Each structure stands twice: as C-alpha cells, then as structure tokens.
Amino acid sequence: QMADPFLYDTGERSHYGCLGHEVQIEYLKAYVCRPSFSTDKAVIVVHDVFGWRFSDIRYIVDLIAGHGYITICPDFFKGTKPWTSTDHWADFPDWMKNHDPTKVDKEADVVLKYLKEQCGAQKIGVVGFSWGGMAVHHLMLKNPQLTAGVSLYGIIRDSEERYRLLNPTFFIFGEKDHTISLDQIFLLEDKLKQYCKVPYKIKVYPGQVHGFAQLKPEDMKPDDKPYIEEARRDMIDWIKMFV
Prior knowledge:
Elements: E1 21-25, E2 28-33, E3 41-46, H1 55-65, E4 70-74, H2 92-97, H3 105-117, E5 123-129, H4 131-142, E6 146-152, E7 169-174, H5 182-195, E8 200-205, H6 225-242
Parallel strand pairs: 3-4, 3-5, 5-6, 6-7, 7-8
Antiparallel strand pairs: 1-2, 2-4
C-alpha cells in the first residue's frame, strides 16, 4: 500500500461558491477572477493534480484577485481527466507520464497572450501548487515573460539545469511533506546560491504536510492555521514585491 502522496483528504471539503467565471481561450478552458478595479497586473495560478475545477484552487484564485490582480487558472490538463481521490496510487506514475508538469509551455503562452491582448496585462506572475509548483519551477527557468513565480511544494528534481532562474522565484515547503525531503530543499538552496542570478527565497513552514497552503478556512486545523495564513501572506507579498 503506497502512502497517499498528498496527505490531505479531498473528500471532506466544504462547498465553495466561486467569485469568478469560466472562459474559453483558444483550446483551453480557464477560470478567471478579476479585482473590483482595473489593473494591468495579472497572476496565472497552476492547479495541482486535482485540476482547474478543484474548489481549493478556485478559492486561491479568488484570494489573489482580492489583492488586486487579474487572476486566471487555466486547465493545464487540456480537458483530460484530473487525478481524483478515488484513483489508485499504484496508477499514479503512469498518470504522471501523461501529465508532465514540465510540458506546460504552449499553454502558458496561450494564457500570456490572452492576458496581454484581452486583459491589458503588462506584468504577469505565476503561482503553482504541488504539480503546479513543479510547472512554476519549470516556467521560471524558461519563460522570461513571467516577472515572478511562487512554487508551493513542487520542484523539478532530475535536471542539473534547474537553478538558473530567469526572474524572482519563491519556494514554499511544508516541513512534514513526505514527497519533498529536507535534503532536497537543502540541495536546492545550495545550488541556487551557486547558480541563481535573480532574487529567490526558500521557506519551510513548521509541521506542515503536502498541500497545506490551499486549504479553505473552514477546512483548516487550528494548529495549522497560523502557518497556512503566513504562507499565503508570504506568497502575496512576493507577488506584490515583483509583479
């Protein structure tokens, strides 16, 4: 029996009424939430394995929009089935082969074009969770149009070329995340010191497991709440500093 790599139960989620709406951009569906005033700043949110319709991710999109950004979460799975909490973990490696978080460049370009041409965005950041955190790490190495990134508990592990970030990137981790060991975090820090030419930050939140930062308030355990809120504030502060 493989341990559930996410350690958070998606079954008992409270209902969430979204503030945004769905749009079609070329071949992609996306969820968009705009702030109450007009702005030329935008943030792309990259969902985790549970996909762009997962209520926790929509909650995060709405949260970021509330801070003054046109915020969009495209379906990076392009209409294919996301992972669900009833799927078997033994099948996960095969599922991942067909959902590679480093193959998101085309979708990112489609969304960047939409944000610039249809929404008037001039500065665009990217935030991603788990699967999406890996996608953010990849995009911050490849796409200079993204002015800042926040990768939450997702890093590319198997490439020596993963440290030359193009723009400021913040890596958020939970101390008790059994998908990313502290050794990997120390290695990342060590190599970024050597190779990275732009501002970066790495922060580990005490006692937190994989997936901790996107929980909705009513789903948080009291002991975790301060760390979840701190991680979100830190995420927003990074975006505000650079986007």
